[in-house]
Write a structure and sequence with these properties.
The structure holds 3 protein chains of 3 kinds.
Chain A: H1 2-30, H2 51-54, H3 60-93, H4 99-111, H5 114-127, H6 136-160, H7 165-172, H8 177-206, H9 209-214, H10 221-228, H11 236-262, H12 271-281, H13 287-290
Chain B: H1 11-37, H2 57-98, H3 103-111, H4 118-128, H5 134-141, H6 155-179, H7 183-191, H8 196-225, H9 228-233, H10 241-250, H11 255-281
Helix pairs in contact in B: 1-11, 2-6, 2-8, 2-11, 6-8, 7-8, 8-11, 10-11
Chain C: H1 4-15, E1 22-30, E2 35-44, E3 49-53, H2 60-68, E4 75-80, E5 83-84, E6 95-98, H3 110-120, H4 126-136, H5 152-164, E7 170-174, H6 182-199, E8 202-207, H7 210-216, E9 219-224, E10 227-232, H8 234-239, H9 244-249, E11 254-264, E12 267-272, E13 275-280, E14 290-295, E15 301-304, E16 314-326, E17 330-336, E18 342-348, E19 361-366, E20 372-375
Parallel strand pairs in C: 3-8, 3-9, 6-7, 7-8
Antiparallel strand pairs in C: 1-2, 1-4, 4-5, 9-10, 11-12, 11-14, 12-13, 14-20, 15-19, 16-17, 16-19, 17-18
Helix pairs in contact in C: 3-4, 3-5, 4-5
The chains are: A mainly alpha, B mainly alpha, C alpha+beta.
């Protein structure tokens, strides 16, 4: 009884975690489901099959949409990561006029509702006469826009946590400013940049609301799922969902294991690393940013 | 010893410029476009084009026609935020103070489900809450739900979906806040004759307020504008404002009305956030 | 006694050629609202273990950073081995630093940390040299670990090796032992001294810990508010302080208000609240007629009232014990004097004398050659309220 009392919070916490995994397990299970008929609208488990995994592109339009999402995700990640990293360096390392308004400008896209951002962009494109040309380019523009702030916040926090005595030590040890940057600063900030890039990709890949408003006739993977949600749902979307889950868990766990191996001698996991997990996974949760409001 | 010295000069501006230009061009200026579009003549269209007629009546019509959706959005998002706060607090507290060496693993587990596609995840709730599903059958067996009762396509399903999807936005800031609390403070409160419940409300809760504030905002804001959950789990009786804006833009092509709704939504959120942050700032949250 | 300072300097300077060491001339550093270093002149002879000692904020770290090139002086010059390096970039100076928290590169292993400097300078035979260095600091078994896997003491050694491998003209150590616990600190003090003797490089050591400075350095410069208060060998600084700051910051001192009555021959006669005491002329640093008579607590003898103590000359009657702390090797008394001041007296527990109790009436005495007289214009409490960080 006392044991239960001391563990009650932990047990409740684990129950909440279980709750978050219920739909995920459904996704995984349904990726092995065989629908009773081609046109079946009933969404429930019918029969076990590996077909969905063996033939993921039964509906070619799904794979097309998937490919487009990956393409947009990669390009948006590249763009946002480069622009955002440069800006983060400027914010931490350089002085300039208008710092606080810049901070607000960076914070707002993370706080504004997507529907408002999406409709604003659409209004811009329409008034600029691009109403007929909505598609790949406009989606890419939008994605870089909403990923940018997350990149800046993530890289900035990494950079701010980097003591400049390390750079001074490098200088003291005969490294020129260029060598100091490439041998010390960049390798130390790189995990932050990588985290920001992964975050960007997952935000871009998963975005629906903003994309849907600015996509024209182009279909991304979330838009494809949206399209089929009221019709026959191809079980292959669950394959995609499962693969996404596995890949991201592998990335996160891989980073964690690598980190543990490095600091095994120390007691307990490093708080810095934990912070970066928190930051990378939910840069939206940057409480610091809220102060800008 | 020495603070990071911020370098002066033009380099900073050069590094910052691309990002700022991008955000100004594709985030700030669009707001202006939205504002402008909300005042266009209401009988224009994509083909005939719009003219700026300062049609303030667009706003009046928008409110008149769509106030139920507005109210519904606020209520659903409010409930979802409330449920998220309860679930999220328990989880964040458990991870911060009770998980011991499993802390990092639990954090990863909080985040992991949300790397699966938002839409695919939400669709699977359709199956879970479906009429022949385990949940409905159990509730019917317990007579909590009538024999013809259902969960899918009800406000309950929508709130449930919102709660589920925005939970990490609550857990992470809460965790960040609670994890910073020195556990010895809680022990000290127990030492000073506060029972665990009193200790919680006098020590833990006030110290975690920053996380509560950012968590509720980060949950409420996206939830109020969301329409995926409502579209997939709700019915025409449960339409939220996001659905309306979206369909006015993409289906009805009524840009002025849709823009006016968007502007109203934005203003509403800004006002609420300012009010909320101000109150929270004076530790007067509840 | 007072010649000791000059002696040490001449001896140390003789080791290197004149002007070969580090020389600071009128070095000044002003920040927005205060002057951190105020027209500092300092010569550090080659091969010495030199300590810059002072409370935090006294300008010692700023001085060090200017020597390292990490801070640009507002005015003044820095010369090293006869060359002006005042405006030389840090990565071109033959000076290396052991940073306060070591500043080891967390992404590089121990070997690469140590090899960092040689690699930048494209020196040949790096491997052998790194191993030689790691041997010197006794870390050969840890070469492929990253800094986070090492203990504080080990990190300290890596930082030292990383700096020493470059064979700098001067090695700067910024509070190098500050992050270590007491026991480890003692160990590292001895270690650092050994290494310095072994490599023969000039060490400039910045610290706020007087014990650390006294243990390791052969010359100490006591710094306060941007200027050097006094410089000399540790024993000279301790035995013959010239300012109230040094008297209080380096150990403890009783400072008693006195009026100088005469300065004849070798002795100064001082009236201390009606009691005449003698102080050697060379230990009298007050120019006015008033001064602070200073005496270290362990130099004060304590005896029963009326007991003839063996010190000729300075006997101060009328004391009452107001506090007794027994600390094992010694007993520390607070003695209230007739003029109201409480004096500190430390007495060795040799067992020859009984331990007094609170309220006992006692007589104090000290040998004239242990006392000193300081300028009355100085604050008698300067340097005494500074907490260790």
């Amino acid at each position: 009884m006392r044991w239960l009392q001391s563990k009650v919070v932990l047990i409740l916490g684990i129950l909440v975690l279980v709750y978050t995994f219920v739909p995920i397990s459904v996704v995984v299970v349904m990726s092995f489901n065989k629908l009773p008929s081609e046109q079946s609208k009933i969404y429930r488990f019918n029969q076990f099959t590996l077909d969905n995994w063996l033939h993921p592109c039964t509906d070619p339009s799904m794979c097309q949409a998937l490919g487009r999402s990956i393409e947009i995700g990669l390009l948006a990640t590249l763009g946002a990561t480069i622009l955002g990293t440069l800006a983060a360096f400027a914010l931490v390392r350089h002085s300039f006029v208008g710092r606080s308004s810049t901070n607000v400008l960076i914070f707002l896209p993370m706080a504004a509702p997507e529907i408002v951002m999406g409709s604003s962009l659409l209004a811009l494109f329409v008034s600029a006469g691009f109403a007929g040309q909505l598609g790949f380019t406009t989606i890419l523009i939008a994605h870089i826009m909403f990923c940018l702030s997350f990149v800046i916040v993530t890289v900035r926090s990494r950079l701010a946590g980097l003591s400049d005595t390390l750079e001074q030590a490098a200088m003291d040890l005969y490294a020129t400013p260029q060598q100091t940057f490439w041998k010390v600063t960049f390798p130390l900030v790189f995990p932050g940049i990588l985290g920001a890039a992964l975050l960007s990709f997952s935000l871009s890949f998963d975005d629906f609301i903003i994309t849907n408003l600015n996509a024209g006739n182009t279909t991304t993977f979330p838009m494809y799922v949206w399209g089929v949600s009221r019709k026959t749902i191809p079980m292959q979307i669950n394959v995609v969902g499962t693969v996404m889950l596995i890949v991201s868990v592998l990335i996160v766990v891989g980073g964690e294991v690598r980190n543990r191996r490095r600091t095994r001698a120390l007691a307990g996991p490093s708080p810095a690393r934990r912070d970066s997990v928190v930051a990378a996974a939910g840069a939206r949760s940057s409480a610091g940013g809220l102060e800008a409001v | 010893m020495s603070e990071t010295v911020r370098r002066k000069g033009i380099t900073g501006y050069i590094l910052l410029a691309p990002a700022v230009v991008w955000l100004v061009a594709f985030f700030l200026i669009p707001f202006y476009s939205l504002l402008a579009a909300s005042l266009f003549n209401s009988d224009g269209s994509d083909f005939r084009g719009y003219t700026m007629t300062y049609e303030w009546s667009n706003y009046w019509h928008a409110i008149q026609d769509y106030y139920p959706q507005f109210i519904r959005s606020l209520v659903y998002a409010g409930f979802a935020t409330f449920f998220c706060l309860i679930l999220g607090y328990v989880l964040a507290y458990a991870i911060a103070f009770k998980s011991g060496r499993w802390k990092n693993l639990m954090l990863v587990l909080v985040i992991a489900p949300f790397f699966t596609s938002f839409l695919v995840r939400t669709l699977s709730w359709k199956l879970i809450l479906g009429n022949d599903g385990v949940v409905v059958n159990t509730l019917q067996f317990l007579h909590i739900l009538g024999p013809n009762g259902h969960l899918l396509y009800t406000p309950f399903a929508v709130v449930m979906g919102l709660t589920y999807n925005f939970l990490p936005f609550m857990v992470l800031p809460l965790f960040a806040s609670i994890d910073k609390i020195d556990y010895r403070l809680i022990e000290a409160s127990n030492d000073l004759y506060a029972n665990p419940v009193v200790g919680f409300f006098k020590v833990t809760w006030p110290l975690s307020l920053p996380g509560v504030v950012s968590g509720t905002l980060l949950t409420f804001i996206p939830a109020v504008g969301d329409y995926i959950n409502d579209e997939l789990l709700g019915s025409t009786q449960t339409r939220m404002i996001g659905n309306t804006i979206q369909s006015l833009f993409t289906e009805a092509n009524d840009y002025p009305a849709a823009s006016a709704l968007s502007v109203i939504l934005m203003l509403m959120i800004v006002v609420m956030v300012l009010f909320y942050v101000k109150r929270a700032g004076t530790e007067d949250l509840l | 006694m007072s010649h000791l300072a000059e002696d040490t300097t001449t001896v140390a300077a003789a080791e290197g050629t004149p002007g070969a060491g580090l020389g600071l001339r009128a070095l000044t550093k002003q920040f927005a609202n205060f002057t951190a270093v105020d027209s500092l002149d300092l010569d550090v002879p080659t091969g010495s273990f030199f300590a810059l000692l002072g409370p935090s904020g006294c300008g010692k770290t700023t001085t060090l950073r200017m020597v390292a090139g990490l801070e640009t002086p507002t005015s003044g010059t820095i010369h090293l081995a006869g060359k002006d390096i005042t405006h030389q970039k840090p990565y071109r100076r033959p000076v290396n630093t052991v940073f306060q928290n070591y500043a080891l590169f967390p992404h590089l292993d121990i070997f690469e940390n140590v090899a960092f400097g040689p690699r930048r300078r494209k020196v040949a035979g790096i491997d052998a040299e790194v191993h030689r260095m790691l041997e010197l600091v006794e870390l050969t078994s840890q070469t492929r670990k990253v800094p986070a896997q090492l203990s504080g003491g080990q990190q300290q050694r890596v930082a030292l090796a990383r700096a020493l491998i470059n064979k700098p003209e001067v090695l700067l150590l910024d509070e190098p032992l500050g992050a270590l616990d007491l026991k480890l600190r003692r160990q590292m003090q001895i270690e650092l001294k050994r290494i310095q003797t072994e490599v023969g490089i000039t060490f400039i050591h910045v610290t706020h810990d007087q014990e650390e400075a006294m243990t390791m350095a052969d010359t100490i410069a006591v710094m306060n508010a941007g200027v050097i208060e006094q410089m000399g060998a540790p024993d000279d600084l301790y035995e013959n302080p010239r300012t109230t700051f040094v008297a209080n910051f380096l150990g403890q001192s009783n400072l008693i208000d006195g009026t100088i009555r005469s300065r004849d021959g070798d002795m100064t006669r001082v009236d201390m609240h009606g009691i005449m005491v003698s102080v050697p002329r060379e230990r009298t640093h007050a120019t006015d007629s008033r001064g602070w008579v200073g005496i270290r607590p362990e130099k004060v003898l304590i005896g029963e009232e009326g007991e003839a103590l063996d010190a000729p000359g300075n006997t101060i009657p009328g004391g009452v014990i107001s506090d007794v702390s027994f600390v094992g090797v010694s007993t520390q008394y607070l003695v209230r004097m007739p003029w109201g001041q409480e004096l500190q007296v430390f007495e060795q527990n040799t067992g020859r004398r009984r331990i007094f109790r609170t309220g006992d009436r006692v007589e104090l005495s000290w040998r004239p050659e242990y006392a000193f007289v300081l300028d009355h214009a100085q604050d008698a409490s300067a340097g005494s309220q500074i907490d260790d960080e």
